[in-house]
Automatic annotation (TrEMBL):
This is YitI protein. It holds the Pfam family Acetyltransf_1. It comes from Flavobacterium saliperosum S13. Residues 1-145 form the N-acetyltransferase domain. PROSITE patterns: GNAT (PS51186). CDD domains: NAT_SF.
Length: 145
């Protein structure tokens, strides 16, 4: 059975590490702001195992004028479970959370390879691609909600 619920920052690491930081130490899975009260983490469970994660941070991007902005980070599904519709469920959960918080805009830095995934969810790229050291080319993407 698949279900999603809110988890602690450290519980995301079992998915963040193999998917987003392969070969890197577990400390590299910690993101600034992970433990702030304004940050929320969600785990997608298959039975009792977390197989997908997403985190939502209350972070303003100075390039956008909307007041209530949230940033998605650490979006990942274990490789074996990708392309089964689970990533969509995680983004929708994050969107639902932001709506509940009266957020107006969701933005994030998307890996180039994930841009088509987010486009299917109606996120748009903004500006030119940029490099994040050791990870690769990214685009800022956003959606008003
Ligand atoms: C990107 C990621 C989170 C998507 O999760 P997922 O569970 O594989 O995605 P879904 O199965 O929900 O995909 C939804 C749709 O997007 C498509 N899609 C997913 N990943 C895609 C990709 N990389 N390129 C093109 N289309 C993609 C799916 O085919 C599906 O299309 P459909 O509705 O026509 O069938 C997941 O593949 C992942 O963890 N990738 C590695 C880490 C990563 O890149 N994270 C994002 C960092 S910004």
């Amino acid at each position: 059975m698949i279900f999603i619920h809110q988890i602690e920052a450290e519980e995301t690491f079992s998915v963040r590490q193999p998917v987003l930081r392969p070969g890197k130490p577990i400390e590299s899975c910690h993101f600034e702001g992970d433990n702030l009260g304004t940050t929320a983490h969600f785990g997608l469970y298959k039975n009792d195992k977390i197989i997908g994660v997403v985190s939502v941070f209350k972070v303003q991007n100075p390039n956008f004028i909307r007041k209530e902005q949230y940033q998605i980070r650490g979006m990942a599904v274990l490789e074996k479970y990708q392309r089964k519709g689970l990533g969509v469920q995680l983004v929708k959960k994050a969107e639902h959370y932001v709506k509940e918080k009266k957020g107006e805009l969701i933005w994030f830095n998307a890996r180039e390879s994930a841009v088509p995934f987010y486009e299917k969810l109606n996120y748009k790229t903004k500006g030119s691609p940029f490099e994040i050291s050791e990870i690769g080319t990214h685009f800022v993407m956003l959606k008003c909600i």
